[in-house]
Amino acid sequence: MSGLGASAALAVLVAWVVFALLGWVASPGLSAGLGAVVGVVVVAMFRESLAVGGAVALLAPFGVMLPALAVRHVAVSLGVPMAPFAAWELVGFLVLYAVFLAAAFGVVPVDLYRFGFAPVPVAVMVLVVCAYGFMTGNWFLPLVAVLGQAAWVMGWGSSNWFDYVLHVVMWPVALVVLVGRMV
């Protein structure tokens, strides 16, 4: 992702963290507004700082998914109606992504990551995600898949589509959400 894209993604994530922390003591609207201001100010004023550079190094490539999940969470908290992910969807994601990561580390003898470099497999995966969205009525994942494909086609960063639609941070986040629903 370009420097501008990484900065925008980091601003969204900083804004989301501030929103989440302020959400314990302030209204969602105030938390979202202050989060947006802090996200923009932190990235604009401290772009060359060690902390911001470290955050970029730790989280990059941001892709489309992390900022989209942050924006989705804020939108839902502000009252925008969106269907939550079902428990079975979270479990399915955890299992499939664990297999994907195991394959990427060479534990599973199939290189699934290589499919993200080729146009035909990417198109098929995007169409499958879009069909899933059509069947479930949940347009969040198809939107992320298509935006990720657009960024991938335009060459805004990684040469692999998976880098736009997946992030290793998603696994623990999905696990925490799933456990939180069970408690």
TrEMBL record:
Span-the-membrane segments of this chain are 30-46, 51-70, 90-110, 122-141, 161-180
Answer yes or no on keyword Transmembrane.
yes
Organism for this UniProt entry: Roseovarius indicus
Q: Which domain of life is it from?
A: Bacteria
Keywords, A to Z, come to: Membrane, Transmembrane, Transmembrane helix
**Can you name this protein?**
Uncharacterized protein
